[in-house]
Amino acid sequence: MDTEDRVIEFLGQLAAWFTDPMHWQGSDGIPTRVFEHVWYSLFAALAAVAIGLPIGLLVGHTNKGGEIAVNISNFGRAIPSFGILVLAFALAGFGYIPIFVAMTALGLPPIVTNSYVGVRSVDPEVRESAEGMGMTGWQVLTRVEIPVAMPLVMAGIRTSVVQVVATTTLAASIAAGGLGRYIFDGFTQLNDAEVVAGAMLVAALALLTEFGLSRLQLAVVPRGLRHHAASAALDAKIGTGMGAG
Amino acid sequence: MTPLVILATALVRWDWIARNGDEIWLRTQQHLVLTALSVLLGLVVAFPLALAAIRYPRLYGPLLGVGGVLFTIPSVALFPLLGPFTGILTRTTALIVLTIYTVLILLRNTVEGLRSVPADIREAAEAMGYRRTAQLFKVELPLALPVIIAGLRIATVTTIGLVTITAVIGQGGYGQFFIDGFLRNFATVTIVGIVLSVALAVGADLLLLLVQRALTPWTRRTA
Questions:
Q1: Is the CATH code 1.10.3720.10 the one for domain A28-239?
Q2: Where are the domains of chain A?
Q3: What is the ipTM of this complex?
Q4: Shortest CB distance from A192 goes to which of B64, B83, B201?
Q5: How far apart are CA B93 and CA B85, in angstroms?
Q6: CA–CA distance, A204 with A184 (Å, rounded to integer)
Q7: What is the pTM of this model?
């Protein structure tokens, strides 16, 4: 049988997998797996924003500890998230806790680094004139620095969330749920159609998240700064080695 | 983080490490070979693409767009997606996916690096009678080298992290320690994998930094 026949046969198996009603219901159905994947990622991403954003903004505002804020992102790239996940499992056992810990840790660096760099990128003259107008430190942060830093802050959040959604796929490697379940179960059962179906679902969810967040980014970034947003997003993504999942 | 490190250290069974030097060396070799091959392949693909993108700037946007989409897809999903063509559990699949990620990083840095060469230097080279190719290799490329090597460092460190995932498709490397660590519920193996992976990334990064310093001595004065 030549390659073409094999590919056509495989596409048939794939179509059969997706149209099998068994794969659309119950605890191993696509809706359940999507739901698991989304909430695993969501809580970790929210925690990463809640922890990382104040740190990055504060370090940027006070300009103390800046080197740590930048290096955390470089160092973060070297840490294998798969390993951290399995280590968290060794310490915390089955369940959501190891996933939450590992995914939050994974999501932190791009948010800290980008919000720090964003605040630091505010023109010193702009900051001085804000101070000259009598603004307090808090007012300078909330009315000048944060709006100006918004393209980078949002780019960091977007990178972080997409990375978390992507890497949550590995939760299945420590016997949890989510869309990675299909990939890992397919491997052990030598069911290629299930592996590829899972991969397609994971890819679709990651791309959808990226697209949704880019819309959100456009809505949140002040109009005058929007032309920066797209290139900032790409910088954040590559700069932090996205796809590390 | 610190209590975590202390706890993790307490979990390490040092005698396992002493008894399993062979396996550690095997995983290191597998990890190194996959990393080196995909970074080299990435360079080979990205360099002509970068030249094309500079010559035909219209290509650059779409190239980055496609790259951005591929970059968003997690590697653990991209491996299987190539499966119908190159087989899911093959080294070819691993190499193609890893190379895709490195190409995007290297392409961007090579283009940015070459574009950052000041126009007056380019004009001076032309006025001195450099031909196009000679000007590229003797004038523009050396000046772009710090930015290109910065991209190479990011690509290498990123790849070392990604190679841990290739264990899932049976390609060994340090990721195999994570799989074993989970299956045998044995933290030592996992910690060994993490430490070696980080050490390899930091080591490769430093090595490339030294290479850059050696190749571009003129940047040291300003740095």
A1: yes
A2: 28-239
A3: 0.87
A4: B83
A5: 9
A6: 18
A7: 0.87
